[in-house]
Amino acid sequence: MAKKPKKQQQQSGGTPATVALTAAGVDFTVHAYDHDPSHPSYGEEAAEAMGVSPDRVFKTLVADVDGTLVVGVVPVAGSLDLKALAAAVGGKRAAMADPALAERTTGYVRGGISPLGQRKKLRTVLDDSAGAHPTICVSAGRRGLEVELAPGDLAELTGAVLAPIGRG
Which candidate, 9, 2, 28, 20, places its Cα nearest to that of 152? Predict the structure, then answer.
């Protein structure tokens, strides 16, 4: 009896984010670069390594809004407006989530948290500036790996609300 071939785990080195994109049939491009652990900003490092404007590279931040974890996706060139994030989901107060809790909940490590393919799908808010670009880049699920896709596809796959949550 012939052995059944083993399934390739996550499409030969893929991440839950890239597997989710492939399964959804969405057009995307993966960008890999050598991550430098001494770089002070994961997002700015990604923009520099890919030669992409920091306005098109978005970071995924996990916040606690009134006791519920929520994802904010904002350009790496700016920061997350916690008050605006809370308002976007009908909450009152927001604070950055405990990093260990964010990692456990999403299944990703800090600096590699993707808005896609999370272990537990969290409510997501995408900064409305994303709509100004034909494509944006977000983490593909690990440090040194980004995925480029249309902001509308990202919003659809994550169920994201678009709102002005970024601060320049």
Answer: 28
**Which pTM does this prediction carry?**
0.89
The CA–CA distances, whole Å, from 8 to 5, 26, 86, 135 equal 9, 21, 40, 29
Q: CB within 8 A of 96, min separation 6: which ones?
A: 61, 62, 63, 64, 82
Element (H, E) at 59: strand 58-65
**Which residues make beta-bridge pairs with 62?**
71
Could you tell me the two tokens for 94? 């927001």
CA distances to 87, 98, 126, 140, 149 from 91, rounded to whole Å, are 5, 18, 16, 28, 29
Q: Tens digit of pLDDT for each residue in 100-155?
A: 999 999 999 998 999 999 999 999 999 999 999 999 999 999 999 999 999 999 99
pLDDT at 3 > cutoff 70:
no
How far apart are the two ends of the chain, measured CA to CA in Å?
63
